[in-house]
Amino acid sequence: MAGEEKDKNAIGDKLIAMALAAFGISRKFVMASRYDEATETAIILTNGGTRVSFKDGDKVEKLDEISITGIPKPRKVIAGKAK
């Protein structure tokens, strides 16, 4: 029993790591992650509020910075006095 649980956890951890690499997400910006055993899918929620799912072999596009971190880039002043 304990060996099977370790194997499932190892598979889940490996798939989550693959998903993070595929989407370009740093682990420090992950709010929550889990492995769904029934569908063999890694599900990740970023600090930016984006929820992504990943199966082994999926081709995905990397997420933009706001989707990952939730922190927008500073805006450029286009009118008025710059601070």
Describe the structure.
It is built from two helices and three strands; from the N terminus they run αβββα. It is an alpha+beta fold and 83 residues long. It has one domain. The radius of gyration is 17 Å and the shape is elongated. The N and C termini lie far apart (63 Å).
Poorly predicted regions are none
Q: What percentage of amino acids are in beta strands?
A: 15-25%
The dominant shape is: elongated
In terms of quaternary structure, what is this? single chain
Architecture blueprint of SSEs:
Blueprint (H helix, E strand, L loop, with lengths): L1 H22 L6 E7 L4 E6 L4 E4 L10 H5 L14
Antiparallel strand pairs: 1-2, 2-3
List keywords for this structure.
83 residues, alpha+beta, 3-stranded antiparallel beta sheet, 2 helices, elongated
What's the quick description here?
The protein contains two helices and three strands; from the N terminus they run H-E-E-E-H.
